[in-house]
Amino acid sequence: MIYPLDLLLLLFLVVCALMAVKLRDLLDSIIVLAGYSLIMALTWVEMNAPDVALTEAAVGAGVTTFLFIAALSKTVRREKR
Fold first, then answer.
1. Half-sphere exposure (Cβ direction) of 76: Cα atoms closer than 13 Å
2. Average pLDDT per block of 10 residues along the chain, 81 residues long
3. Residue 43: inside a domain, yes or no?
4. Which one of 27, 36, 45, 57 has the minimum C-beta count within 10 Å?
């Protein structure tokens, strides 16, 4: 049986995934991907897998976001003329 919370989490996941692909600014995409990882962690909790949820929150939203921002800070932004 599909619960309304499951559908809501799925909707948020799809919206975050599409936004991350469509956004033009890389920092905005990184922030949306961090939100995606947090929503995915909530999905794992909803599916009674707290160990996987904790790993997703720590690695997906924490470490990966930090590494993406660190890599982005090493790049130079170019403006279109």
1. 1
2. 92 97 94 96 95 95 95 84 65
3. yes
4. 27
